[in-house]
Write a structure and sequence with these properties.
about 300 residues, alpha/beta, TIM Barrel, 8-stranded parallel sheet, 8 strands
């Protein structure tokens, strides 16, 4: 059973949606219990929403059974302190199965990954989300949009599915985001910046609120400081803090973004929170020079 109402969830989505890593043990098996210190610090720091089976959680590298185990474990570890979103995706049958498992686990909403299939029609995406929604009546949905090529008509149609409570906008097209917000003003849905802290000021300027974050696994207090500055329209402070983490995000963007999760997990290991390696096709381990840069950066951020 979910712990938060739709209204409470809607309000929380204006905050930080922290995308949790998926820990692995020395044998390569998932080790959910290793998330506890990460979750506890994120919650105590003021992160508003936590997400299992997101991209920072290597969702597309997990077996279906592992995804089900992770969402159950995360809801248990969080224990109703903040809303939990469960990511679902891949084939429509897998997505519906995981949606049902996530609902049984007690998530407060689903986060539906945009289908990565190379043959995706705009109306097919709408049908995909509607079918998942039909599988879990009453469960709110957050859309995770990375490819805006489906067009404004399809985006609006997705937003008008009754279960949709929010959109994580992970496209750099802020002009299209502004128009999407304009076309759906009659709906009470959250438009969340889906490209992490760096894009926060730009997305706020066109009407989005809140942002997703993988940084919360390592330095949740930095994310919270950035969010607080944005909420009070103190863009100068927000940019200053963003600049302090820019090198971290630049390391994550190396190798065609293939080090995105790599850097987070390597940083955790350096902080004595071992969540194991990443799985292929992510880059692992870090290259020696990049790892040395990360060590120096972590030291500077601690000071």
């Amino acid at each position: 059973m979910a712990n938060f109402s739709r209204a409470q969830l809607r309000a929380a989505l204006n905050g930080i949606s922290g995308i949790l890593v998926t820990p692995f043990d020395s044998n390569g098996k998932i080790a959910p219990s290793r998330l506890k210190p990460i979750v506890d610090k994120a919650v105590s720091s003021g992160v508003h929403v936590l997400v299992a089976n997101g991209n920072t959680g290597e969702y597309f590298g997990l077996r279906q059974s592992e995804s089900e185990e992770m969402v159950a474990a995360v809801t248990d570890i969080v224990g109703g302190r903040v809303p939990v979103l469960g990511g679902v995706g891949r084939s429509i049958l897998e997505a519906c199965d995981l949606a049902r498992a996530s609902q049984r686990a007690g998530v407060d909403a689903l986060m539906i990954h945009q289908p990565p299939d190379p043959f995706v029609s705009p109306r097919g995406v709408v049908a995909y989300v509607q079918e998942i929604s039909n599988a879990v009546p009453g469960l709110p949905i957050v859309l995770y949009l990375r490819n805006d090529n489906i067009g404004l008509d399809a985006i609006e149609a997705l937003c008008r599915i009754p279960a949709v409570v929010g959109v994580k906008w992970a496209s750099q097209n802020s002009i299209l985001l502004s128009e999407a917000i304009r076309r759906t003003r009659d709906l009470d849905i959250a438009w969340v910046g889906g490209l992490a802290e760096t894009w926060g000021p730009g997305f706020y300027s066109v009407g989005a609120r809140g942002f997703t974050s993988g940084l919360i696994n390592v330095f949740p207090e930095k994310s919270v400081e950035i969010h607080a500055a944005l909420e009070r329209s103190d863009y100068e402070t927000a940019r200053r803090i963003i600049e302090s983490i820019a090198a971290f995000e630049e390391l994550r963007a190396q190798e065609n973004n293939g080090t995105n999760v790599t850097v987070v997990k390597a940083a955790l290991q350096l902080m004595d929170i071992d969540c194991g390696p990443t799985r292929s096709p992510s880059a692992w381990p870090m290259k020696p020079q990049a790892l040395e840069e990360l060590k120096q950066l972590l030291q500077s951020l601690k000071n």
